[in-house]
TrEMBL record:
Origin: domain of life: Bacteria
Keyword tRNA processing attributed: no
Keyword Ion transport found: no
Listed name of the protein: Tetratricopeptide repeat protein
Ranges occupied by TPR repeats: 22-55
Keywords: Repeat, TPR repeat
Length: 330
């Protein structure tokens, strides 16, 4: 027994301890990456980097894994570190690719051009040129979208001005152009039917709004318009059908809140209208003449005459054109 133990000890002294090198960790990391076991791959590569912190290849491979899992910022941090310790041109391509994924096109273009500049015939030349081509297309699309948004904004502001000043015919001409140019814009049809209604084309406006509500029954603007139209047409049953659900609706957006408050005021529900006006953030809606018109009207009909006069005076101060109008309660 004693002899066996000594032989065993003798054998152990002949075994050289196995100390893994950085390449071993790197190889294990690549194997895990190929099997798409990304968490394990990251752990092995970090071990490899700990063993050889100046080995750019290990760090570049780690950045590629981060890119694969969508951790683009982490990938870029690794690549920036590599560039501090070595002039690894491939890092520029990898950075350009990551910035493109993040939507930071200027940065993507910068690093793609750096790659071409430093290695015109590099391994990733074709990929970089393709990336630059895609960036140019993206930038052109973005410019077109911005131009379209600017044009839409001009139309919206013009329509808003005419409708706030009850210039219905002028509003209709602009809205007809908008319906052709921006058919998907959600509120243009509702503004159009309202302008038609107050221009005296009530039945046409009503028919159009009823058709629109069939395709979008939850439309707040559609329901508000129909409640308003039926109220002015004296059809109480239909008015109640559309106004009752609005009494239970509390939108998040200030413009929608204002729309409901004004609809309540215009159709004689002054108690509810007062509650809605008080819930508004005034700084966000004070650009509307209708805010001051109908808030003042609401206060007056709730026997808050001094408040009504105060609201009206503030409206006239902010919008001098209101001075030419009679007070809403008259």
């Amino acid at each position: 027994m004693q002899q066996v133990t000594s032989k065993s000890n003798e054998r152990q002294t002949n075994v050289l301890p196995f100390i893994p090198e950085g390449d071993f960790y790197f190889t294990k990391g690549i194997e895990a990456f190929q099997k798409r076991k990304f968490d394990i791959a990251v752990k092995w590569l970090k071990k490899a980097i700990d063993h050889k912190p100046d080995e750019a290849l290990y760090q570049c491979q780690l950045s590629i894994i981060y890119t694969e899992i969508g951790a683009y910022h982490a990938a870029n941090d690794v690549l920036m570190h590599v560039l501090k310790i070595s002039e690894n041109v491939d890092c520029y391509y990898l950075l350009a690719n990551n910035f493109a994924h993040l939507g930071l096109l200027n940065d993507a273009k910068k690093y793609a051009n750096l790659y071409i500049q430093k290695d015109p015939d590099g391994e990733f030349k074709e990929e970089v040129l393709h990336l630059l081509e895609l960036i140019d297309i993206e930038e052109e699309d973005a410019d077109e979208e911005l131009e379209e948004e600017d044009e839409l904004l001009i139309y919206q502001e013009t329509v808003f001005y005419h409708m706030e000043h009850y210039e219905w015919e002028k509003a209709i001409h602009i809205l007809e152009e908008m319906l052709v140019l921006f058919p998907e814009h959600p509120n243009s049809k509702h503004d159009y039917t309202q302008a038609l209604f107050f221009l005296g084309r009530e039945q046409q406006a009503l028919a159009m709004e009823l058709e629109e509500i069939q395709s979008n029954p939850d439309s707040l603007y559609g329901r508000s318009n129909l409640a308003l139209f039926y109220y002015y047409l004296g059809k109480e049953k239909e008015y109640n059908f559309y106004i009752e659900p609005l009494l239970k609706v509390y939108p998040i957006h200030e413009q929608q809140k204002l729309r409901i408050a004004i609809t309540m005021a215009r159709t004689g529900k002054f108690v509810e209208a007062a509650r809605r006006f008080k819930m508004l953030a005034k700084e966000k809606v004070s650009g509307h003449l209708s805010y001051f018109r109908f808030y003042a009207l609401t206060a007056y009909h709730n026997d808050e005459h001094e408040k009504a006069i105060s609201i009206w005076k503030e409206g006239c101060k902010r919008h001098p054109e209101l001075i030419r109008e009679t007070t809403p309660w008259n």
